[in-house]
Every structure is written in structure tokens, then in C-alpha cells.
Design brief:
Elements lengths: L1 H26 L6 H9 L8 E6 L7 E7 L5 H14 L8 E5 L2
Antiparallel strand pairs: 1-2, 1-3
Helix pairs in contact: 1-3
Length: about 100
């Protein structure tokens, strides 16, 4: 069981590293400041739609809290889905639910 868990953790970690590397390479061409890019992502003004990674919360209004703004990847939706898997892989968050929501 521990061997399979370690393999899954290693696979997820490598996926995240690859996704971050791809995002860094693609982001290197953009000469804008990161604050401008983040603002445009939140406002939904980027070429590719950005996504919020949400986690269920009893504190936040609506029951979901925003964790990570996902943008700058080849496929932002796929990157967000990978982060959902990462979130569920931690034993401390196994009872939490995650979802992705497209920035409007």
C-alpha cells in the first residue's frame, strides 16, 4: 500500500513540476509585470481562460474558498484538474472537496 501511495505521490509531483516548467517557459515571452497579468487573469481578459482551484469551506460564503488562480499553462483546465488530485493526495485534506471554476 505504501509503495503505491509513494508512486502516486511521485507521479503527481512530477506532473506539477512539468506543468510549472511549461508555464515558466511560456511566461518568459511576456514583458508585462506579474501584477498586470494576475489582474487580467482575475478579470477574465487573458487569451486562454483562467481557473480558480476551490476547496470546500464552512467559513467562506457560498461554501467554497479560492485557493489558487491557475493561468499561463498550455491548458489551464487540465492544470487545475492536476491540482485537484494533488489536493486530495494529502492525508490531512482527504475529507476536503476540491473543484475548478472558470474565471468569469
Amino acid at each position: 500500500m505504501y509503495k503505491n501511495t509513494f508512486k502516486l505521490f511521485r507521479k503527481i509531483t512530477m506532473s506539477l513540476v512539468i506543468l510549472l516548467a511549461m508555464g515558466s517557459i511560456a511566461g518568459g515571452k511576456d514583458k508585462r509585470y506579474s501584477e498586470e497579468i494576475v489582474t487580467e487573469a482575475i478579470e477574465g481578459k487573458l487569451e486562454k481562460p483562467a481557473y480558480w482551484l476551490l476547496m470546500d469551506s464552512s467559513v467562506a460564503s457560498g461554501g467554497w474558498s479560492k485557493l489558487i488562480l491557475v493561468f499561463g499553462f498550455w491548458d489551464n483546465s487540465q492544470a487545475c484538474d492536476e491540482l485537484k488530485i494533488w489536493g486530495k493526495s494529502n492525508p490531512h485534506r482527504k475529507h476536503r472537496r476540491f473543484r475548478c471554476e472558470r474565471v468569469k
